[in-house]
Amino acid sequence: MIKRALLSVSDKQGIVEFARGLAELGVEIVSTGGTAAVLQEAGVVVTPVDQVTGFPEILDGRVKTLHPLVHGGILARRDLPRHRRQMAEHGIMPIDLVAVNLYPFRATVSKPGVRLEEAIENIDIGGPAMIRSAAKNHRDVIVVVNPERYAFVLSALRAGGDLDEAVRLALAVEAFQHTAFYDALIGEYLGARAGAGLLDFPRELTLAFEKVAPLRYGENPHQRAAFYRDPLPAGSTLASAEQLQGKELSYNNLNDAQAAWALVREFAEPACVAVKHANPCGVGLDETLVKAYGKAYAADPVSIFGGILAFNRPLDGQTAHALADVFLEVIIAPEFTPEAREMLVARKNLRLLRVPLPGGAGGVPNECPPRPFELRRVDGGLLLQESDAPGASPAEWHCATRARPTEDDLLELLFAWKVVKHVKSNAIVVAAGRQTLGIGAGQTNRVDAARIALRQAGERARGAYLASDAFFPFADTVEAAAEAGIRAVVQPGGSVRDEESIRVADERGLIMLFTGRRHFRH
User: Fold this and answer.
1) Which of the listed residues 54, 71, 303, 331 has the most CB atoms within 10 Å of its CB?
2) 234-289 pLDDT, tens per residue?
3) CATH T-level topology, domain 394-514
4) Catalytic residue among 83, 136, 247, 321
5) CA-to-CA distance for 41 and 38, rounded, in angstroms?
C-alpha cells in the first residue's frame, strides 16, 4: 500500500488534483519549495522536505533533496531484511511514490538572448537523481514524470491500492527516457556553446527529440509511424509548421513536404516547387507567385497531380484561384492570405501548412539548413553527416569549353544547379527561363537520367540548360544533350574521362562548366 509520496514538480499541471487524490487515500505528502507552496495554498496538508531531512535547502536551492533520508527512503528494497534494519537504525521512512518533473531547461534556452549562466541554473540535479532512484527501485516505488499519468495512477490506486509490476516497469521506462532526453538536451546546448556539436562526431552520440504526434501511417498503410521534432528552436522548419486545415498528415506527406520546403528556401525570388515521391517534378521562379506557380505547373502537369506545393511567399488569392482545379495533398507557405484561405477552405482534405519565416511572413527562406547535419538509420547503427550546404557561386565555376557563358547563361545554370541538388541520384535537370522542363531522377546510370529529362523537355530542350548532380563517366550524356539542342551544361567535373566530354562539347558547340562539387542525394 502507498503510504508516503514525494512530489516535486516544475510543471504544476494537475499536481493539486493528484495530491488531493493521494491525500484522500491516506497518503502522506512530502514536497519541496514551490510545489509545497502551491499545494498548501490549495489546502493540501504537506510535509516540507526539510522537516524530513532535518536540513534546510541551501545554495540557492541547489541542494534540498540530495540527502540519505530522501534517497534511502526511495532506494531501500522492502524485500531485504538488512535494508529494513538499516532504515530503522538511521530513522529512514520509506517513500512509496515519487512524482517529479524537471527544471524548465528547454524553455529557458529557447528564450532570445538567454545567458549561459541562466541556462546553467536551470540544469536540474536533485530531480533527475530522485527520478532515477525511483525508477531503479520501481518494484517498490511508483515513479511518475508525466502529468498525463496522474489520473491513471490515482484510478489504479483507488481500485486496488497498488499498481502491478508491468505498469510500474512501464512508468520506470518513461522515467529513464525523460532523464535521458533532458541530459541529451543539455549536452547538445552546451556542446553548441562550446563549439563541440554533433559534427565533431562524438564517441558516444545522444539525441533528444520530442513526439509531435502519431501519424496516420508510415510509407505504407500497414506501417505505424510518428513525427518527432528537435526540441530546441531551429528557425524555419517543417517541424514548426502549423496545420491550418485538412486531414491528418502521413509519413509520406511529411517526407515529401520536407523535400519541397528544402528546395523552395534555396531561392530569393518568388518561387513555387512541386514535389512527388520526394523528388521535384516542377519548379518555377518569377516576379509574382502566381507566375511562379504557372511555371511549376506547366513543367509537368501530369506529375503534379496528387503532389505537394511549396511557396516562399504568402499564398495570395490569385495564386489560390490558379491552383483551384489541381488535386494536391499539401500546400506549404509562410502565410495564407484571408482570400486564399476562403478559396481553399472548401477542399476539406487539402492540408495547408504555415511555416513561419525569420522576419515574419514576408521573409525569404534562402538560408542554410537550421541543423547542419543529417541522420539515417542502417541495421544496427546510424549514419551522421554534414548537411549538403550551398557550394561555390557561378563566379567560381570553371568553364571547360571554348564556348563561354553569358551572365544570363550563368543565371539559368545556377537555377538548374540548385534544383538538381534536391533530386535523387543519378539526377539530371533540364531548365530554361527559371523553369524546370525535364527531370530525370533516381536512375542507375546517368545517361538514362538524361534521356528521361530530355524526353520530358521535348522541343523545349532546344536552347535550354542541363545540370547533372555528378560528373559524366562517359561522353554519352553530352552527346544526348547536344542532340536535343541543349545550349549549356553544368556538372561537377572530376571524371578521369572529362577530356572526352569536353571534346564532344567543343565539337558540338556546347558551353560546359565545372562546379568542383557534386550533389549526390541517395
Assistant:
1) 331
2) 678 888 899 999 999 999 999 999 999 999 999 999 999 999 999 999 999 999 99
3) Cytidine Deaminase; domain 2 (3.40.140)
4) 136
5) 5
